[in-house]
Amino acid sequence: MTCPRAPSAVRAGRSMWVRCALWGARARSQLQSGVLAPRRRHGGAASYSASAQASRVRALIYGSHGEPAKVVELKNLELAAVGGSDVHVRMLAAPINPSDINMIQGNYGLLPKLPAVGGNEGVGQVEAVGCRVTRLKPGDWVIPANAGLGTWQTEAVFSEKALIQVPNDIPLQSAATLSVNPCTAYRMLVDFEQLKPGDSVIQNASNSGVGQAVIQIAAALGLRTINVVRDRPDIQKLMDRLKDLGAEHVITEEELRKPEAKNLFKNTPQPRLALNCVGGKSSTELLRHLAPGGTMVTYGGMAKQPVTAPVSLLIFKDLKLRGFWLSQWKKDHSPDEFQGLILTLCDLIHRGQLTAPACSEVPLQDYQRALEASMEPFVSSKQILTM
């Protein structure tokens, strides 16, 4: 038995809606008791078949804020019932981002109600849909529409409006890391300065997920990048990798402070846009190299130090200090605009102009290792939990 979709139900009248509601309530009751389990059906609507027990979900949950390795636990949950506007999703992969760590620690701008499933980003495959779902069907790939969804679990039931469809012909790692870092990179490159091909951008934390996306998207837009990184034992290897992505210049923070750094701008125009993810002295150095009237956009604070802007730079160069948070951008824009942003990035992926950051795939059960690795210094590989 299938539940009719909303348009036909409206045409058939209120009685059809009543039958739909009664069927959904009966199915939910049976699913929770373990009598029924969801099964894929050709045509997009959910169907159910007899099963000995309810589906079990494995999820990474934290019940209090603190150090992730101490408060995150792998637990078994029961799959929620699929309502008329719900979508049953089997998660495929989900990364561990700095925002995930900060959220667990309790020092992020958005904190879910506890206990909570970790993870703000990832990709899953639709297994079944409710009777009023119109945009999605089984087999589709989906990503979170907003942060706080809880992607570190093997499967879940989400509302349709909490999900955005992405093409299922892009690489899995690209889909899993699409909704945060590339979106942040694109918006910062196009929203703050009217840059044209040949203009340059300077950024710190260039080996981060956002930094790697900035390099590639900037190259696709015809922009030149000056990329600042911290010195490390394998610095030449890192520089080569970033240049392979399209970076024109890669320089350490120590080198940027030297007088010789001005030689960078003999053949490269002085940047009008700086992207800061570090703060402290690193952000001050970015400001020193901005062109008059330029803008520095801060989207992170890895050094946990304030942004210090010398008075002389503000007065005599009229520099602008701005901030960016993708979650706020989503609040200020419609879901269709975010969907359009995702499609723009997917087009770059299809054209080979945007790839996922360097990733290390880790099975969900090895989450402790992944959490620890994601918090180590000088890590250039993003940890991705695979389900």
UniProtKB/TrEMBL annotation:
<keyword id="KW-0560">Oxidoreductase</keyword>
<keyword id="KW-0809">Transit peptide</keyword>
<dbReference type="Pfam" id="PF08240">
    <property type="entry name" value="ADH_N"/>
</dbReference>
<dbReference type="InterPro" id="IPR036291">
    <property type="entry name" value="NAD(P)-bd_dom_sf"/>
</dbReference>
<keyword id="KW-0276">Fatty acid metabolism</keyword>
<dbReference type="GO" id="GO:0005739">
    <property type="term" value="C:mitochondrion"/>
</dbReference>
<keyword id="KW-0443">Lipid metabolism</keyword>
<dbReference type="GO" id="GO:0006879">
    <property type="term" value="P:intracellular iron ion homeostasis"/>
</dbReference>
<dbReference type="Pfam" id="PF00107">
    <property type="entry name" value="ADH_zinc_N"/>
</dbReference>
<comment type="similarity">
    <text>Belongs to the zinc-containing alcohol dehydrogenase family. Quinone oxidoreductase subfamily.</text>
</comment>
<dbReference type="InterPro" id="IPR013154">
    <property type="entry name" value="ADH-like_N"/>
</dbReference>
<comment type="function">
    <text>Catalyzes the NADPH-dependent reduction of trans-2-enoyl thioesters in mitochondrial fatty acid synthesis (fatty acid synthesis type II). Fatty acid chain elongation in mitochondria uses acyl carrier protein (ACP) as an acyl group carrier, but the enzyme accepts both ACP and CoA thioesters as substrates in vitro. Displays a preference for medium-chain over short- and long-chain substrates. May provide the octanoyl chain used for lipoic acid biosynthesis, regulating protein lipoylation and mitochondrial respiratory activity particularly in Purkinje cells.</text>
</comment>
<dbReference type="InterPro" id="IPR011032">
    <property type="entry name" value="GroES-like_sf"/>
</dbReference>
<keyword id="KW-0275">Fatty acid biosynthesis</keyword>
<dbReference type="InterPro" id="IPR020843">
    <property type="entry name" value="ER"/>
</dbReference>
<dbReference type="InterPro" id="IPR051034">
    <property type="entry name" value="Mito_Enoyl-ACP_Reductase"/>
</dbReference>
<keyword id="KW-0444">Lipid biosynthesis</keyword>
<dbReference type="GO" id="GO:0016020">
    <property type="term" value="C:membrane"/>
</dbReference>
<dbReference type="GO" id="GO:0006633">
    <property type="term" value="P:fatty acid biosynthetic process"/>
</dbReference>
<feature type="domain" description="Enoyl reductase (ER)">
    <location>
        <begin position="74"/>
        <end position="385"/>
    </location>
</feature>
<dbReference type="InterPro" id="IPR013149">
    <property type="entry name" value="ADH-like_C"/>
</dbReference>
<keyword id="KW-0496">Mitochondrion</keyword>
<dbReference type="GO" id="GO:0046513">
    <property type="term" value="P:ceramide biosynthetic process"/>
</dbReference>
<keyword id="KW-0521">NADP</keyword>
<dbReference type="GO" id="GO:0141148">
    <property type="term" value="F:enoyl-[acyl-carrier-protein] reductase (NADPH) activity"/>
</dbReference>
<protein>
    <recommendedName>
        <fullName>Enoyl-[acyl-carrier-protein] reductase, mitochondrial</fullName>
        <ecNumber>1.3.1.104</ecNumber>
    </recommendedName>
</protein>
